[in-house]
Amino acid sequence: MSAPPGTEPARSSAPASGRAVPPSSGAAAADMLARPLAQTSLLDAVRDLRRDVEATAFPLEIAGVDAARGSRARLVDQLDEHLVPRLTELSAPAVVVVAGSTGAGKSTLVNSLVGREVTAAGVLRPTTREPVLVHHPLDADLLSHHPVLEEVEAVAAETVPRGIAILDAPDLDSVLESNRDTAHRLLEAADLWLFVTTAARYGDALPWQVLEAAVERSTSVAMVLNRVPAASLPTVRGDLLDRLRVHGLAGSPLFVIPDVGPHAGPLAPSAVAPVLRWLTMLAGPDRARTVVARTLRGALDALRPWVDELAEAVQDQVDAAQHVARVLDDATTEPGAAAADTIAAGAVADGAVRARWAGLRAAKAPFARVVGRSGRVRGSARTGRARSAAAGPALVDLTESATAVLTAIGQRAGEELRAALTGPAAPAGGASVLARWPSHESGRAAAAERAARAWVGEGARVTRTVLAAGAADARRRAQVAKAVGEDALTAVALTAAAGVDDAAETVRALLGTAGDDLVTQLREDLVRRARAQVDVERTAADAALDDQDLAEDASSRLRLRLAVLKGLT
Q1: H-helix or E-strand containing 295?
Q2: Half-sphere exposure of 457 (CA within 13 A, CB side)
Q3: Hey, how many other C-beta atoms are within 10 angstroms of the C-beta on 37?
Q4: Which of 110, 381, 393, 525 could form a disulfide with 168 if both were Cys (CB 3.0 to 4.6 A apart)?
Q5: Residue 316 · residue 428 · CB < 8 Å
Q6: What is the tens place of the pLDDT at every residue in 520-559?
Q7: What is the 3-state secondary structure (H, E, C) of 401-423?
Q8: Are 349 and 495 in contact (CB under 8 A)?
Q9: Is there a contact between 492 and 503 (Cβ–Cβ < 8 Å)?
Q10: What digits encode the pLDDT tens for the residues 475-520?
Q11: How many H-runs (helices) and E-runs (strands) does the chain carry?
Q12: Cross-strand pairs, 153
């Protein structure tokens, strides 16, 4: 078939026709359209991919994250605006998006192709405020579920060939960001891109960047060179053909519309006749299906590297999260050692505990004379009951002091862990983890109180065990149990373990080496609980890393979807 007048292939060796696709793509289209069951499976796979892509987040601010987020958003647009609706209704008209830079004459071209004004055109910029989709009235039902209708004004015109719908998009370089975003989003819906430029603007960088994206996805593309002065036509046309070749668009049709000077309303029918003839030819059932199939196949093929890149970006997030976790693990070493030192220095004994013990040891106080000079335990069962009663407040003091010290240990550990995620040596993504790290004030205090109560409870248990053990000195231990009492001995042993040396001497005087072992055991238990407070802070940090997009297998979800698509295409 010969090329319609006014079109030029971008290279002389290409067939002189207005085809937007090679014959092989037509065979692929026929094969694609002949397998409804396979298409149903493919549609399901694409919908699954779309769901997982949209759900994919990039929570950590690391190198490349902005590009990944932008790529994800564009992929969702491509799936929403083109692939899902096209796979849902393969017989719907081919969507021809007319795009270009400000003042290229897109709206005037659309009005001229339709034969009446259906979209605003003028000298004020930005002109196209609401995109317009023009279609044949009999194609309305086939377009009724296309998501693009949510963003455009749909106009029915019998002059539009059946099988295509012409969409006048906003300027790619509009001064309004909303217009630019809409233009790029609508391009994702296109089965065919009809790019309009002028003799003065064809060298602008932005349109060529957009066209490169079309080449990557094998989208069908045609170029309209508008407002070309006759004198400069040979030079401009030759340069534009060279640019098309360089950008991989050598086979794309090129239409030239001469400069008609100042005018109002649509162009003369003869000026746009070549474009209209070409669109009419494409609107034929076989041609339209071929255009749709080529763009669809190209879009599906383009998903592979696109999803691969997103999966790699997700893996980068996972790797960064694991590195942050290792940094936090390492950062617990020093606070853990400091916690042990704090306990060894007798921090729990300072203040109320030491004062309470001094009061218990004062003259005529319950613990003034516990062991006589002969080593005999002084006191009766009545004395033991008095001493146990006096021990109650001491146990309260021990619990409160241990709670305060453990809370302080946790707070210092939390501060040091957070500090490890800041500064020049901070790991990538550390600031994001810090921002997501929940406040731990109430949790820290609650954990410290539980640990303190558990330590006091452990003191009672171990003391009870010591008093019940040992046949050789059973009489001595019975005397201690009677004259001192289990609760009182627990208070003395915990006071000793907290760091009061006089209390430790009292326990030794009562139980000998078994008393030393008791104090040592309780002090070591307190050290373990202090170190555990550091671990509590480290565990709290895991809440900031508890994200499905930071899980070890996060990228596998996208790779699984990609594998399914590869199997279907």
Answers
A1: helix 285-331
A2: 7
A3: 7
A4: 110
A5: no
A6: 999 999 999 999 999 999 998 898 899 999 999 999 999 9
A7: HHHHHHHHHHHHHHHHHHHCCCC
A8: yes
A9: yes
A10: 788 887 777 888 888 999 999 999 999 999 988 988 888 889 999 9
A11: 21, 8
A12: 132
